[in-house]
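If you are new to this repository, start here. Below is one unmodified record pulled from the training split, so you can see the exact layout before writing a loader.
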Amino acid sequence: MAIETFTWPTERGEAAEIQYRTREARFAGGYRQVVGDGPNNREDRYPVTLTGSAAELRTILAFFDRHAGAKAFLWTPPLGGTGLFTCADPRPTPIGAGLFKLSATFARAFHP
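And here is the target side for that same chain:
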């Protein structure tokens, strides 16, 4: 089965969370040694928001249901560079007049 692509436009303005996993050893005299933890030690997460009708958000939620928080999909973050991401926390909120806001966090995933 082919990897699906998340194509819906997201609202901009949320700050990405970028963190590097490292391992550190401390020695006498204040000396320390730090190395990256594995080949993919950069972890990045992107809070996203979408606004639309109930029908539009049902389609997006069905996309997330197919991936169930574990199966990765393709997405291009704001600074570019299409990659694999997962979404384990979609949060739909009614805002009135038949519109809904969907908030979620996309976390970088890697192929084994």
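Two things worth knowing about this chain: DSSP finds one helix and eight strands in the chain. The radius of gyration is 18 Å.
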